[in-house]
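Meet today's protein:

…
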Amino acid sequence: MNMLVDLPDPSEERVAAALKRLQLTHLRDTLAAVLSEAAKEEWTYLEFLDRILGREVDSKQGKRIQMGMQIAHFPCVRTIETFDFAFQPSVDERLIRELSTGNFIAHGQNVLIFGPPGVGKTHLAIGLGRKIVEQGHTARFTTATALLAVLGKAESEGVLSDKLTEYAKPRLLIIDELGYLPFERRAAHLFFQLVNRRYEKGSLLVTTNQRVSEWGMVFGDEVLATAILDRLLHHSHTLLITGESFRLREKRKSGLIRSRLPNTDLERPEREAGPESRRKTESQRGGENR
């Protein structure tokens, strides 16, 4: 009894081998489905090339972005699209959109985001970092305390130069939560070395809850703080967020906080006068009416 057996097509085998050698892995893995679709849709030769090459490019781009996100060590997923600009009107949305294009990376410019805790500094930093990775650049995220711990350990082990080189490589280095804890003098010098290593070569994005005038206290040395600021601010974009904490808003929605807490801005607006000031104003008005 004769049995018909579908023998593998030699041509298809050669194509699959060539795709593997050329590292066109997506097309190799989907070849059968692509050939079936092409026959069904009656693609022209040019349409066939356009479709398969486009899908291969998209696949490689997706893998590259995924790897870039892993290398960046973002602590969570935050995007510019999900940032609530309406809740934080002090944020310059136009500037954020411009920074999202990545043009500042090409010029080695820095970004400094100032604001009290909870107003979205880290959200914006991660969102911008993800945009940079999606555009093909390398990024690295770290907190200031973690960074200084790594550099301090590297110095004690005699490999500081190697570690500084490692942190100098990414096109964008994000340093989060600068100023939440003061630096020891040696740590401040290590931070200066990193900033100096990246100066005009790679972009820094720094988030901080401390005004520039307080950086001398943060670094424990006014001269050193000035040197660091000089390099950070020379080619930079700065944002000051003066709104309420997102976290407090969520607690208020859940009923844990009944009313809006006093403003926690870095710069307290003059319009928020205290009770003593309001009594003086009312007294003055009474005198004018008399």
User: Anything to note?
Assistant: The chain has a mean pLDDT of 86. The longest helix spans residues 45-72. The first strand starts at residue 110 and ends at 114.
